[in-house]
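As a next step, the fold was encoded as tokens, giving this record:
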Amino acid sequence: MKLNKIITIIAIIVLSASCQDFLNLSDPNAVTTGNYYQNETDMQSSLNGAYAALKDGYFMGNSNPYFEECKARILTYPDTGVNAGENASFDNCTVVPSNQFVLSRWNSIYKCIDRANVLLKHLDDITYTDASVRNNLEGEARFIRALCYFTLVCDWGDAPVVLSKLESLSEVNENNVRKPKAEVYKAIYDDCEWVISKSSLPDLQPKSGVGHASKVAAMTLYGKALLQKATDADFASEKNSLCSQAISQLTAAWNKKPFSDFTAVDITEVWDVDKQAESKEGIFQLSFVGGSAAANSYYNTSFRPSSIDDDSKEVNAKKSAGSFFMSIPKGQSIWDESGDKRFDVLIGSGKNSGGLPGYYTIKYKDLDASGYYGCNNVVLRYADVVMMLAEANYHGGNASEAVKWVDMVRKRAGLTNTTATSGTALRDVIYKERQREFAFEFKAFTDLKRGYSADEIMTIMKADGATEFDKADLLLPIPHAQWLLNPEGLYQNPGYVD
């Protein structure tokens, strides 16, 4: 059983709701905004605030590996004593409801949702020079909100669903209740559908629009959410229908691709800090600005080990090292086929602070001498579309079509076609290719839950040495102070004790 204690920022906000700042009339990110919005510039600033919330360290920023790669035991945080062991508890499978990282992730996501809801509430406070400007603002806010709810349903399952700006303490209390996963998924689907069918956003953003949502981004997220639900045992009766719908959305995204042959798309282009904004493979990126203390990214410092074996694979100018680390045995188990370009070009080796050898990634390379780096987080890209088409076809019962898509990724990586043609052998090939293709891209645990049943994940984790892992670890705990606010409505996930 997972034990616990603590208090959350959102809890504090709720408990102090009667304070004067609760009804701040000039802050676009406060509970109400009154007369803040005067022109299109104000609206764009509000949208920028929502995008900024996506970049929060505990959401999609540099602490994201705890919730994906570390939970899947792809990466480890070797310093078991720091922060009372909370960092290491993810790969040790000992996360409890008092964990500050879990609390911060919950807060960050709902802050992002709140900012999207603020903008949506006030869209009609001004007159626009062009109706498409308003339309696009709504489309981008809805995409951001859908991305938030996708993360919530993957991490926690049932979750509060808030689709409008809450204006009072009573409204906050009424909405601080977990809704069934089906309702969370519906919120995702509805927002993505709006972007696709009603917005005037471009199919794909040009270089000047990097960092902004697009119709293809919504199609891809819609397909991913449908696939995630299809592989959840709680929705087994809907599996074939959901897979079919996922294939439809992902095929629509694929048909908008800006290239003719995926296998000819350079695997390094989307990771080149000077080219990624216009990369043919990119669909949605969190955009950062190099040389700026206020807008830079930290990904390359999160993954660089203390020392590296090949100076040509340096990832940051200051040689700053982080603590996320892939062991040699883990790396060798993932890249167990020679000639894989992704390993040869995008993975380096070195030693962590304790002198242990391991692997790191070159994906976030930026040698800006200022130490303020501009490497983006590529959230959605066409390789993901290809691999999800393989997944959706496999889970939908069309093995031969699944083979076609997975071989496309293998061919681009310099590997031969898979010899697996059906059953669990093909399934294992698909999800190993996802481990290789999306290494260090904050997808590993969510992918694992799509590919394997709860019992299979238990077996995988135990075989990997995760002696503390149990089925409770498939979801994060509800932060303790949130639970205290409404023990009945914010019921704890099974296996955790408050």
Observations:
- The mean pLDDT is 92.
- The chain is about 45% helix and 5% strand.
